[in-house]
Amino acid sequence: MAASRKVYRAVDQYNKANGTKLVLDDFPYRKIDRKTRIELSRLYTKPISKFQNLYGFDSHRNSHSEQVAGIHVSFTEQRTVETKEGKVTYNQLFDFPTVMRKLDNTFKDEIKAAKRRAGFYEVKEDGRVEYRSLPSNTPLDKLIEFFEDEGY
């Protein structure tokens, strides 16, 4: 049974047991009215995004009234070195543009259908790199298969 079917079956069982109407929605973009967007921004303020794009894009292709939802994939090239004080682990710089171009190519249809653009990423303060182009409805089995096939 596919993982997504298991999730939807679990939600259905939860709703029946609790008399609720919980709905899972993985649609990659939605229109949100102005009032709701303002209320949410007051409740859930996020820090300023520091994303970049490999190809020079400033934003996704969605309209201003649409909000996008995506899967962010975090990469690290962790290294450990021995020092006088003991072992120190850190995240080393690596050739992330090559990995991201492969992801962009593999998922180009999903990215386009979701009004997103390829090549978005953010370098985190601790040296992690986060790939930010995949829509929320990306098939997770395809994503897992990509990483297994690429040897990551």
Write the layout of secondary structure elements.
Layout: H1 3-18, E1 29-31, H2 34-43, E2 52-53, E3 66-68, E4 70-75, E5 78-83, E6 86-91, H3 96-106, H4 108-113, E7 120-123, E8 129-135, H5 140-150
Antiparallel strand pairs: 1-3, 2-7, 4-8, 5-6, 7-8
Characterise the protein shown here.
With 152 residues, the chain is an alpha+beta fold. It has one domain. Helices cover 36% and strands 24% of the residues. It has five helices and eight strands. Strand 7 and strand 8 (129-135) form a beta hairpin. The longest helix is centred in the first third of the chain and has 16 residues, at 3-18. The radius of gyration is 19 Å and the shape is globular. The two termini are 25 Å apart.
Q: Tell me, what's the shape?
A: globular
How much of the sequence lies in strands comes to 15-25%
Major sheet strand order: 2-7-8-4
Order of helices and strands: HEHEEEEEHHEEH
Helical region count?
Answer: 5
Structural class: alpha+beta
Q: How many distinct beta strands?
A: 8
- Overall radius of gyration: 19 Å
Domain count: the total is 1
Task: Summarize model confidence as the mean pLDDT.
Answer: 86
Main β sheet profile:
4 strands, antiparallel
Low-confidence stretches: none
Distance between the termini: 25 Å
